[in-house]
């Protein structure tokens, strides 16, 4: 698509927005005004068997988190309204899918954290995502002085308070008017499509994480710890299943509840049929919405 006046470097301006959503951007101008929350139990029994099979060769180590990234990326590709954002009361459609998460360098109270941003590609499946992402995470854990955005933040924190206030005012103006330097936005997780947090890795359950008014991120997903639950199947038979709780915080202005619900249905379908994660993101899959 050719860039037009009003488009941004990272997104196209949505010019055919319906009246209701146009009004919502003015009724709820701040992203935190439009937060909605979804709590869902995801059955990962088949997925864990799939992961075990993938890891049997020892060629790579596929994890639940890699599968979440693949499933969410697939869902956003098939449900493109999830890749929209509102800034300056205008709607935009991102040019690509981006995901961000935090990496703890060590499991200790005062250990540093690094931010990692990942851009899934159409020719990638879960194995390719694992192969690309694992070195990035390992690098983030090894860096003693931080990587990219961490270095930048450590410099900025030394500014005097009045200068810092002026600096933030300039950043907020640039953010609202699409003038944010790519040096900032490309390394800041406030500008990703989805922010993911794997709380299960620290033995914690899923929570609802707030959105930020700064940046463009409108979806945050937290993933809880895998646990066993006694459930009733479609034949009313009891069975013990592996369950993960997820907490999702959304900017409700980017789509409607029906669209969000069907998108979540797709994620659950992918985990119920994990062999679909072997397909690249660009390949079509059969799914009845």
Structural account:
The structure is a single chain. The chain has helices at residues 19-27, 45-55, 64-78, 126-142, 149-156, 161-176, 182-185, 257-272; strands at 11-13, 35-43, 84-87, 90-94, 99-104, 113-118, 194-198, 219-223, 227-232, 238-251. It is α+β, with helices and mostly antiparallel strands. It has a single domain (30-278), classed as 2-Layer Sandwich (Chloramphenicol Acetyltransferase). The strands form 2 sheets. Strands 2, 5, 6, 7, 8, 9 and 10 form a 7-stranded mixed sheet that branches. Strands 1-4-3 form a 3-stranded antiparallel sheet, with no helix packed on it. Helix 3 (64-78) crosses helix 8. The protein is globular, with a radius of gyration of 20 Å.
Global mean pLDDT? 91
Cα(first) to Cα(last) distance is 28 Å
CATH homologous superfamily grouping: Chloramphenicol acetyltransferase-like domain
Class by alpha and beta content? alpha+beta
The oligomeric state of the chains shown is: single chain
CATH architecture: 2-Layer Sandwich
Main pleated sheet? 7 strands, mixed
Which blocks of ≥5 consecutive residues have pLDDT under 50? none
Order of helices and strands: EHEHHEEEEHHHHEEEEH
Which shape, going by the Cα principal axes? globular
Radius of gyration: 20 Å
The CATH topology turns out to be Chloramphenicol Acetyltransferase
Helix percent reads 25-40%
* Contiguous helical run count: 8
